[in-house]
């Protein structure tokens, strides 16, 4: 007979079996590592769709992080841009809070949608350049999102 873990061996009968079943059920909830020959699960994956950005930036790009890859022109820098925005307990893709005061400037017709998974959480975020807050939110994710709307010589250009 196999010995039970010490915490369970002192619990008599049915209670011990219930405790053992609980331990086994909790272990089953953890994903098992890939076996030899099986593909290793990928890290974070994002799909970025950009419209009306101009300069050949429009299209749909796949970005994989950890390890980086995909069809994005610079997946390493794209992953780094999102990583810089990632904080425990905060959504890296969250819109500006509703009560934020934003400048009334127009950054052009560019729009983007980002879907996928980041830090184990689903992502479905939309972006535009309709005001100062939206422009700043977009620019924080460059180069995941393309750099648009900056004149040569402007700060950050």
From TrEMBL:
The keyword Signal applies. InterPro entries: Subtilisin_inhibitor, Subtilisin_inhibitor-like_sf, TAT_signal. The keyword Disulfide bond applies. It is found in: Secreted. Its main location: secreted. Keywords: Disulfide bond, Protease inhibitor, Secreted, Serine protease inhibitor, Signal. SUPFAM superfamilies: Subtilisin inhibitor. Residues 59-126 form the Subtilisin inhibitor domain. Residues 1-36 form the signal peptide. Belongs to the protease inhibitor I16 (SSI) family. This is SSI family serine proteinase inhibitor. It comes from Streptomyces althioticus subsp. attaecolombicae.
